[in-house]
Write a structure and sequence with these properties.
Rossmann fold, 18% helix, single chain, 6-stranded mixed β-sheet, elongated
Length: 673
């Protein structure tokens, strides 16, 4: 794996035209297990001549200072023929934690013999075997085990036994041991090569101590997304130097400027935008850490002082910590397009959409079927669209397939776990109409079967008839057209076999030929319904609206009283005095104005008062409803026929006869004025 503990996002969607499965969108993320690494360093006396200035230790400390601290813990074991000092894997998230670990390393001095088995066994014991984190060991030694003259009581056999047992344990638990033959190696390098080979790691040789930093980053290139650039490797004259670096990487979380020199590194300032960063100066190496990266800044400058003929290496180490995402359906129908998308999310979970960013990657996607992981792989094409990497494939055969995917650029190779894709063949589906009724007089009916049956995968369908009698109907199938000719009444089952080339279904169709008298029963029912409808229309009369309104307001009673004033009567008619009608005494909830003025029949008839009704309403109101030909007004509003009007206390009802001979005002008032 090129990159540890990244997130694989697989969106599972089940999409079918027919026979639809429930669709679920689920995010499946692998947990970040992190990395624990223990440096096992040879502190025997021979290192005094191989590394008199402790540059090897300095390069490990430089790695501690520059490595991205997001999810890595570092431990340390210094050994000779005994354990000199050690530290279990510690977090290096803060500068204080880094300084503590480096102090532990500085507390030991080179002396004594070499016992590689002891150092490795002790380092294995420091690793957390109950943790889900990935574990790794880096062994740095300048010679093979040598215990001649050692006063520890251990023998070379003891050392070799511990070495073999530790290598076996690391192999079984998947812990690689990377080995570095350092300086003028004294002994057989095959021992270190065997240790690395057996634990699925690599072995390196470093002749110059300052070259160790590049080896260390080479070891960790499969566990971090980083880029290490050598900016300069020169010999400088005495004076002030200005070293410029172009910045062209995107979406970085951190940048570190690492300076290495056999001589004392002079006063240095790193200029980054408006920032002036003073590096941590540790004699032979110096580190300037930029943890807030501004994508708009495209250059930084290192200004440093050098002495005459000073050898100086300057590295720019860039880190990013993005979440790679593969978006693809894990189940798809045969012959259906299966699109996929590949992109990154930042640490806040926001998708990065950037054409120029993804064009720097080289995607490699290989598809293979179940049981064929080592052969018949198909490489898929991709392109950058709408800011991400996209592609599409179509699988024509059902079964289980696997997709291996990776992205490579200058900073990392991101490898996704194999994605399992199930390609489902959806059987044909459909049905002939079940509402077709045959009788012995019916004509031959034809069914174009492709109009009734379909395949969700778009396959061509073939049809055939499975055995059966033709007593009731004669059946014929020709080029996908089914013909049925009824012979006599009864039931006959027809079995059709429908195949899409990969699977087939049997469909049973029941041919029902009914007798004539049953076939046309609906005609008699229609006649009967028509007669019933006519009779109902003749004899059923809707209840008048006035009756409906009266029943609806049956629970209400009249309130107050009404005063009537005839303000206009015919010339020959005797004047009618003011009248008062105590409405609260009326027991019914409806009364006509004619009933109230029955003592004046001529006026009542002329005004059509028998067709003017008052119905008691809620809140001491009344409803006025009339079919009279008189002009009726409530206040200034004309009252139309057969429409409900509300009358409240204080309202005045004006009634004028059609010939205008009578004119009366009715005042609706409460009992107490």
């Amino acid at each position: 794996m090129r990159r540890l503990n990244k997130v694989l996002l697989i969106i599972l969607c089940f999409i079918f035209t027919t026979n639809t499965l429930p669709a679920h969108a689920e995010e499946i993320a692998s947990e970040k297990n992190g990395l624990d690494v223990i440096f096992v360093m040879d502190y025997s006396g021979s290192m005094v001549s191989n590394d008199p200035t402790h540059t090897a230790t300095g390069m490990v400390k430089a790695f501690i200072d520059t490595v991205h601290s997001a999810d890595i813990r570092i431990g340390f074991v210094a050994y000779n023929d005994k354990i000199v000092t050690s530290a279990a894997p510690l977090s290096i998230n803060s500068q204080e934690e880094r300084e503590f670990l480096k102090t532990q390393m500085d507390s030991a001095q080179y002396s004594g013999n070499t016992d590689i088995g002891l150092g490795l066994e002790y380092a294995f014991g420091l690793s957390n075997q109950d943790s889900n984190r990935k574990r790794m060991v880096v062994l740095i030694s300048d010679g093979e085990s040598d215990l001649k003259g050692s006063k520890t009581g251990r023998t070379i056999e003891n050392s070799n036994m511990d070495l073999n047992n530790t290598v076996d344990a690391c192999t079984s638990q998947g812990i690689p041991i990377y080995t570095v033959a350092f300086g003028k190696y004294d002994g057989n390098k095959r021992v270190l090569e065997d240790i690395a080979s057996k634990t699925n790691a690599q072995s390196y040789t470093v002749t110059k101590p300052e070259a160790l930093i590049e080896v260390l980053y080479g070891i960790f290139n499969s566990n971090m997304a980083y880029r290490i650039q050598e900016i300069t490797n020169s010999i400088y004259a005495q004076g002030n130097q200005s070293i410029r670096m172009k910045l062209d990487d995107s979406y970085l979380d951190e940048m570190d400027v690492l300076m290495i020199s056999p001589q004392q590194i002079g006063e240095t300032t790193v200029h980054y935008g408006d920032q002036q960063i003073k590096p941590t100066n540790l004699v032979h190496y110096s580190v300037a850490k930029i943890s807030e990266v501004n994508k708009n800044i495209k250059e930084l400058t290192v200004q440093t002082g050098t002495v005459k003929n000073q050898e100086l290496k300057v590295y720019l180490i860039s880190y990013r910590d993005l979440i790679p995402v593969m978006e693809i359906d894990s189940q798809v129908g045969r012959n259906k397009p299966l699109p996929f998308r590949i992109y990154f999310k930042d640490k806040n979970g926001v998708m990065i959409a950037d054409d120029s960013f993804y064009q720097k990657f080289t995607p490699k996607l290989e598809l293979y079927s179940d049981g064929q992981s080592d052969k018949k792989r198909t490489e898929l094409e991709t392109s950058v669209n709408n800011g991400i990497i996209t592609g599409e494939l179509i699988l024509k055969q059902s079964g289980i397939y696997y997709l291996d995917s990776r992205l490579d650029d200058v900073m990392e190779s991101c490898i996704f776990d194999s994605i399992r894709i199930q390609v489902v063949n959806t059987p044909p589906a459909g049905a002939l109409p079940d509402d077709i009724k045959f009788n012995s007089f019916s004509k031959e009916k034809e069914f174009v079967l492709n109009n009734y049956f379909a395949d969700a995968d778009g396959d061509h369908l073939s049809f055939s008839i499975e055995g059966g009698s033709e007593d009731i109907a004669k059946v014929n199938l020709d080029q996908g057209v089914l013909k049925i000719k009824p012979i006599k009444s009864g039931v006959q089952n027809l079995v059709l076999k429908i195949s899409d080339g990969e699977s087939a279904i049997s469909y049973t169709y029941s041919i029902k030929v009914v007798p004539i008298w049953i076939a046309y029963w609906w005609v008699f029912c229609l006649i009967l319904l028509t007669v019933c409808a006519i009779l109902w229309k003749v004899f059923h009369k809707a209840k008048p609206e006035l009756e409906v309104l009266t029943e609806k307001k049956a629970q209400n009673r009249f309130q107050g009283k009404m005063d009537a004033y005839f303000i206009g009567v015919p010339d020959e008619t005797e004047e009618i005095p003011p009248l008062t009608f105590p409405m609260y005494k009326i027991k019914d909830n409806r009364v006509s104005v004619g009933d109230l003025m029955k003592e004046y029949p001529d006026a009542s008839a002329t005004l059509g008062l028998d067709n003017i009704f008052l119905i008691a309403d809620e809140d001491r109101k009344m409803i006025l409803y009339h079919s009279s030909n008189s002009l009726i007004m409530i206040g200034n509003s004309i009252v139309c026929k057969k429409i409900q009007y509300s009358v409240s206390f204080g309202d005045i009802i004006s009634i004028t006869s059609p010939d205008k001979s009578y004119d009366v005002e009715v005042h609706y008032i409460s009992m107490i004025q």
